[in-house]
Amino acid sequence: MLRTLDRALVDRLPKDQGAALRIRLDLDQAEPGLRETLAGLRRAVNGTADPSDGLRSAIAARFADQQATARAT
Prior knowledge:
The chain is mostly helical and 73 residues long. The chain folds into two domains: 1-30, no CATH class; 33-73, no CATH class. Helix content is 77%, strand content 0%. It has helices spanning 2-10, 15-30, 34-46, 55-72. The two termini are 22 Å apart.
């Protein structure tokens, strides 16, 4: 449902913001969990990651999403 709303919002935003949202939605559709994994990597690199907030769990979730997608196809 939210993805449908976001897709409708793409056309109503200013050009730059709409393009950024479209790219994010396309990326989320092509590679589920990638955005969260990259955000976790960014936090780990810049030192803002919470020690209890595991990058490992983000990577594990990404692999689980990939396996689920592979099984579905």
